[in-house]
Specification:
With about 100 residues, this protein is mainly alpha-helical. It has one domain: 5'-nuclease (Rossmann fold), CATH 3.40.50. Helix content is about 65%, strand content about 10%. Strands 1-2-3 form a 3-stranded parallel β-sheet. Helix 1 crosses helix 3 and helix 3 runs antiparallel to helix 4. The longest helix is centred in the middle third of the chain and has 20 residues. The chain starts with a strand and ends in a 7-residue tail after the last helix. The mean pLDDT is about 90.
């Protein structure tokens, strides 16, 4: 099954053990826009920092979680250059009028 990932959904799954297992499923072909990878990694670090600051995760466990998540992104997800999806942008914007930048 081919799936194009959204940053928020990807981050949520990377923060859950079950989600990380799902992302490693060999039956899935996962895709992410190159510019979305930067957003994903930035937001992932912010969310983990917040969890650590709340005392729900130790500093070392937080660092490990980020390392594992970035490893999954690098090894399991194919990055798509903007040239691949740019011709479809106008149609995609029509489908999500509430947030055209999503």
């Amino acid at each position: 099954m081919k799936l194009v990932l959204d940053a928020n959904i990807l981050i949520a799954e990377l923060l859950r053990r079950r989600g990380r297992e799902l992302l490693r499923n060999p039956q899935l072909e996962l895709y992410l826009a190159k510019k979305t990878r930067e957003e994903t990694e930035y937001e992932l670090r912010q969310r983990v920092r917040k969890i650590v600051n709340q005392g729900r995760l130790s500093e070392s466990a937080g660092s490990e979680q980020i390392e594992v998540a970035v490893g999954i992104i690098s090894s399991q997800i194919r990055l798509m250059p903007i040239s691949f999806y740019a011709p479809l942008e106008a149609e995609a914007r029509k489908r999500i009028p509430r947030d055209p930048n999503d």
